[in-house]
Amino acid sequence: MHNLLDLYPAAVLGAQAPLNLWRGAVAFAAAFLAGAINSVAGGGTLVSFPTLIWLGLGGVTANATSTVAIWPGTVGSTWGYRRELRRAEPRFRWLIVPSLVGGLAGAVLLRWTPTAIFDRLVPFLILFATLLFIVQEPVQRRLGTGKAGTRSAGRWLAGALLFQLAVGLYGGYFGAGIGILMLAALSILGLKDIHEMNSLKVIFAGCVNGIAAVYFIWAGMVYWPDVLIMAIGAIAGGYGGAGAARRVGRTAVRRIVILIGLGMAVSLFLKMK
User: Fold this and answer.
1) The whole model's pTM is what?
2) Checking CA distances to 63, which of 107, 139, 167, 177 falls within 20 to 30 Å?
3) What are the sequence ranges of the domains in the chain?
C-alpha cells in the first residue's frame, strides 16, 4: 500500500511553491482547453495531465488530480449535447455498466502502482494516447459502419460491453485516449453521426472518470488547490469553449492536441535519461 510520500511526493508536501496567480492561470487555461477539446475531439487529458506534471506534481498525483479536476467539464459537455442524447438508441445505455466497473478497477490499480514505476510509464502512456489520437480517423474509416447492419445486434452489443470494460479499466488507470477508443467502438456498432457519437462518448467517459474521481478523492490522492481552479476551467471549456473550438475547426484542435502530446512525451523521455 502507498505511504504518504507515494501519494504526495515532495513537490506536493512542501517543496512546491504555494498556489499563486501564475500557477492558477496556467492550471485554469489547461483545464479550459482540456474541457473544450474533450467535448469536440477527445484527448483533453493530453493537455491537463502533462501541465500538472510540468507544474511540479508527481505522476500518480497529477493523474488523480487531472481526473477529478476535468470531470466537471462533462456536465457542460453533456448539456451541450442534450439534443443528440435524446436521439440515441436506448441499447447504448448498457455501456454505462462496464464504464463504471472498469473505471473503478483502473483507479484501484493506479493507487497500488508505486509512484516511481508510474512516473516511468508516463512517457509511454502519453505517446500511446497521442499515437492513438493521430490514427483515430483512419482507424474509424478502416472499421467503417457499412456492414454493421448485417451483423447480429446482440452479438455486437456483447462485444461492445467487453470492449467498454477494457476501455474503462484503461481510463480509470490513465484516461488519455479513451474517447478515441469509444468513438471507434460506436462506429463499429453502426453509428454514423459524429455528434451523436460524441454525445455518447461524453456520457461513457463521464462514468469512467466519475467513478475513478470518487475513488481518488476517497483515497486522498488529489492535490486540491489545483482541482478547485481547474474544475471551474473545465466546466467553462466543456460548454463555452466547445463553441470556440468548433469555430477554430476540428483539424486545428487535433493538431494542437497532437503537438502537445508529442512534445510532452519527448520531453519526458529526455528527462528519464
Assistant:
1) 0.74
2) 139
3) 4-272
